[in-house]
Amino acid sequence: MFRRRKTITEGSLNRKAWIRFRRNYVAMAGLLWIVVSALTAVAGYLVTPDKSRLANRQLLEIATRKPGFFIDIVHVRRNTHVPRQSWLRTMLSGRVSEYSYYPVQSWQFHDDLLVVESFSGEPGYPGMTREFRLIDILFAVADDPQPEMLQGDRLRFTDIDGHVHTVTVAELRHEAERRHIVGERFLLGTDRFGRDMLSQLIIGMRVSLSVGFIAVFISLLIGITLGGIGGYFRGRIDDLIVWVINVVWSVPTLLLVIAITFALGKGFWQVFVAVGLTMWVEVARVVRGQIISVREMEYVEAARALGLTHARIIIRHILPNIMGAVIVISAANFASAILIEAGLSFLGIGVQPPMPSWGTMIRDHYGYIILDKGFLAFLPGIMIMLMVLAFMVVGNGLKEALDKTAKA
Question: How many CB atoms neighbour CB 196 within 10 A?
């Protein structure tokens, strides 16, 4: 009837560490934030309000609007063929819209026309008057076709696919009002180009987490290899690896990243490689020190006595016993990678526009802080702070849990 609470003395060392970690509510909150952010970044364009590629739908009439801004937008069908695509492709790269978008502050029907007053930018100021034919709003039609008037208010016309449509003006009005005059609310406002800030932040989250993941993977691959070889074999090999570590360690990280970025060029993948090639030093130092401390232990000596190869001893017997420390340093490196990527993008040598990045968003909008629109720079800054803080508290929680388990 009552569930028995598991004690820390039960199960393997990993399970004991996990039980201790779960009782650290701050670390669990950080882990929850990381998981939710990762799922949101993976979903990408499936959850963004703006599903265009790179969330780059620009509506200059509504630029720099504050969070919660609401506006009616007329969706006018483009006279082009837009191929259908799967949800997976949409999730990965967005989709090409079938419509052109026009923010309006008022509208009314007149015969088979929709007469709109364009958004002027300021409430109470009149905007420019425009007219759209209802068939142009609803259908992809040939260049300036003249619909044939039938009995009553019925219209007949042909679309670009050669299909003949016969509809009434009342049906056109109903469909236009129901599906093509859409009230949109921008929960986090719009940037200086009229792009949705929420969509930009979500796609920027994908960039930051991708840089962190790939950079940490590269650093683990290089660091574990060099640190493992040096710590296990010692001697001249270890001296050479330690010399390389000290040389790389002596160069400031940001300067080294900038140098590698200039060598590889500006771009998305170049940032991954540049950050990863500068973060392996910490991993190598930790792995080398851990292997030195365990290489003379009984189970390693027993493995040597059984005639196991050096590679098998390192991979199958030593590395699993030191992965706790590697995981902790990886969490810290993940946070560092996010900060470095944001810094490079802020300097203009990281991810290039129009690809959204939190650092680029801060660079583009920091001047608005003195114009009562500081949220444009504060929002991406807050996202960077929360993501880095989450990885740091998770890393500290893991370190504390592993240390207590080792001492128990």
Answer: 25
